[in-house]
Structures are given as C-alpha cells and as structure tokens.
Amino acid sequence: MLTELIAQERRLVLPRFTHEDAWTLGSLLVDLAREREAPVAIDIRRGTQQLFHCALPGSSADNDAWIDRKRRVVERYAESSYLVGTRFRAKGTTFEDAARLDPDMYAAHGGSFPITVEGAGVIGTVTVSGLPQADDHALVVEALERFSS
C-alpha cells in the first residue's frame, strides 16, 4: 500500500496550477461525484486561498470540518493525508497516538492530496470528504489522473 501511495504522488506532478485549473479540476470532481451519487464536499486551495468549494447533496458541515483537518495534514507533511496515516499504521501505531498533534485540528485520513507543481513543490491541496477514507482518496486520485492526462 505504501509503495502505491508514494507512486501516486510522484506521478501526479503538474506543470502548473492556475485559478482556471482549480475550476477545471473541481468541476471534474463534482461530475465524478454526481455520477456516483457521492455525498461529498470538495475543496481546492493554493496556499491559503480557497479556489474551489462545492458541497453536494448529502454532505454536511461535518465534511467541511474533516476537509480542514485532512488539509492541515497535507500542509504539514507535504504528502497526502492517506499516505501520512498509512505510514503511521505501517510503524504499528496511529497518527492520533504518535503525531502529538491536536486531533481536533489534524486528521490523517484519506481524502486530501497535495497539488504539486514541477519546480515549485507542493503549492496547494485538493480534498474530498464524505466517503470512507480509501474512497475519498481514490476519488481525488482519479480526478487528478484525468486532469493531468
């Protein structure tokens, strides 16, 4: 699992990421979620600026709170929230027990992925909340793969 998650991050590096790209990626995520009737909230940020947000039917304010907690993990570790949580589990512990970070502020659960730009590194995040964590992560990865091809 770790190898696959690391490979995703190495593969999904973008040549650039503009405001228009955020709209395109966000719209793609909305379309994929609607096709699946997924009750998710979607958030895309560049730095601290929110460039895209959408809450689909069935999502709630709790999903926005999860987005914030997962996004903070990506901002802190510069890796997907799912990869960070998986790294802790691979060491026989949990993020909550070993990271020494406030669990009300940070959640290493799947669904937030770094937006990485060639030559610049991690410049933002794309986050989904509302499904089981592996499915949140998979939805983001699928959208980034389609967006980058």
From TrEMBL:
* SUPFAM superfamilies hit by this protein: GlcG-like (SSF143744)
Q: What is the lineage of its organism?
A: Bacteria, Bacillati, Actinomycetota, Actinomycetes, Kitasatosporales
Q: Which NCBIfam families match?
A: PRK02487.1-5
This protein's superkingdom?
A: Bacteria
Signal peptide (residue range): none
- Report the source organism: Streptomyces agglomeratus
Gene3D superfamilies named in the record:
Haem-degrading domain (3.30.450.150)
Q: Which family does the entry's similarity section mention?
A: Belongs to the UPF0303 family.
What is the official name of this protein in its record?
Answer: UPF0303 protein AS594_21770
Q: Which Pfam families match?
A: HbpS-like
